[in-house]
Amino acid sequence: MGCIATFDIGTTAVKAVLVTEDGQVLYEASREIRTFHDGGLVEQDPMEWWDAFVLLSRELLGEADQIIGIVMSGQMQDVIPVDEDLNPLGRAILYSDGRAVKEAEEIRQKVGEAFLLETTGNHVDGTMPVAKMLWLSRHRSDVFRRARSFLISSKDFVIARLTGETVGDVTACSTAGAMDLREKTWCERILSSAGVSVFRMPRLLLSHRMAGIVTFTAAAVTGYPEGTPVFAGAGDAGATTLASGIARPGQYNINLGTSGWVATVSDRPLFRESGIFNLAAMPEGGIINVVPFLNAGNVHRWVAKLFSRDGRPDYAYVQSLLERSVPGAHGVFALPYLTGERFPVLDANVRGSFLGVTPETDAEDMARAMMEGVAFSIRQGMEMLEEKPAEVSIIGGGGQVGPWCQIFADVLGQEITVFRDAQTLPARAIAASALIGLGRFMSYDSFVETLKTGDSASVYLPSPERTAFYADLYPRYRELYQALKGWFTDSHKGPERSFD
């Protein structure tokens, strides 16, 4: 039986999963990657993605008789300038980097807010790649001038190195701020406002379309046979949305990765509020309606590090703290905005905060308050979408934290389904796209049906008493940012930390 080599080029690690044609996982491994923070800048080295991919590929090939295709998911909303030889021109600018606030405003003034929203399905802010490309033209003009292409997803850099092709899937490229969401084409009017030619943007493909084949040079480095098909794959939101079994309005998924989002599907973009992202779905014609959050699993990691004994995240200890904690954290509230936020507030300067701390406050209260803060924040996101939730699932690393899943059930007043193999479901989803491209799988609907078979999920039921308790706390939580937002300005950040 042939196998699909799948990879996720994520924010904290590159992950490899070997999936058989019938959806069985034969091998999985990962390699951590670094993120560079400098003031408000957030960047990664694309060659670390490639080096991790090569190492994992060499390991993965030892577990497979035949690789019939390669496909990837990856972080979206990046800017990755590459030269004529597809080498990176410095570090990639990540999605959580909000440096281009002024440039976003200039693009809005040139093009018009209404046109941007109607064309792309989204508002343009300082995190959007189109604004960051304009920022590069002014602050790193040599990089801008030398760039052959500006890639939007981390996986597309790896695809370029594998195949020599600069492509992008429509889900990831929906986050660029310059793609016509309905037509699935680049909008020249928007790109020209940033001084970017459409010929410097990646070729747009549906997830199951072939991006290219492994070249002779890449084969020598990676070990894959020359000519192995490489598929466009999907931005991580597309892969996880499909992997969470969302198929119709009223079904919601909460992703608790490093960052997070609430997602549902519809047949049209939603424009009700500025916090909604509209993305092309993996199945042709579908629209993913997403409320994105910068702070989700990263908050859990921070809490695990804060209360560790050696500076490394101690997840088991935090689990025990949450299990012993009580709803409401004895009156402690927390704003979980550790890295700024784009929802429920669009504020690059906002930071995390604790309120209501007393001499009796302990680690259990502080851990609980932060986890509740994320749940309250995500509840706000769900309230922005049109359909009342009928079904809610959780996917991502946070779904492995049982007490946190129970907090979500109680805060939302909803039954929560958590898929037990959540770590490999996105890999199976993108493997399905490659199998569709190869003509060996019928449709994405067929994949979704496989998720509902067998004993594949855990279910968390809300407690009526705790749900009523949180319903009383929720309005107070919503007041916190408005009360404190004046404090979160550049002048209040304090001195930069010295690492000398």
List the SSEs and their pairings.
Blueprint: E1 3-9, E2 13-20, E3 25-32, E4 36-38, E5 41-44, H1 46-61, E6 67-74, E7 80-82, E8 92-93, H2 101-111, H3 113-120, H4 129-139, H5 141-146, E9 149-151, H6 154-163, E10 167-169, H7 170-173, E11 179-180, E12 185-186, H8 188-193, E13 203-205, E14 210-213, H9 216-222, E15 229-231, E16 234-235, H10 236-243, E17 251-256, E18 260-266, E19 277-280, E20 287-293, H11 297-306, H12 315-324, E21 333-335, E22 353-355, H13 363-384, E23 391-395, H14 402-412, E24 416-419, H15 425-437, H16 444-450, E25 457-460, H17 464-484
Parallel strand pairs: 1-6, 6-16, 10-13, 17-23, 23-24
Antiparallel strand pairs: 1-2, 2-3, 4-5, 5-8, 7-9, 11-12, 14-15, 17-18, 18-20, 19-20, 21-22, 24-25
Strand order of the largest sheet: 19-20-18-17-23-24-25
How large, in whole angstroms, is the Cα Rg?
22 Å
Mean pLDDT over all positions: 92
Structure annotation, total helices = 17
Could you tell me the strand content as a percent range? 15-25%
Helices and strands: which structural class? alpha+beta
Largest sheet: 7 strands, mixed
As for the number of domains, it is 2
CATH H level, superfamily name of the largest domain? ATPase, nucleotide binding domain
**What name is given to the CATH topology of the largest domain?**
Nucleotidyltransferase, domain 5
Total beta strand runs: 25
Question: Could you give the distance between the termini?
Answer: 55 Å
Net shape: globular
Low-confidence stretches: none
Assign the CATH architecture of the largest domain.
Answer: 2-Layer Sandwich
Please report the first level of CATH classification, the CATH class of the largest domain. Answer: Alpha Beta
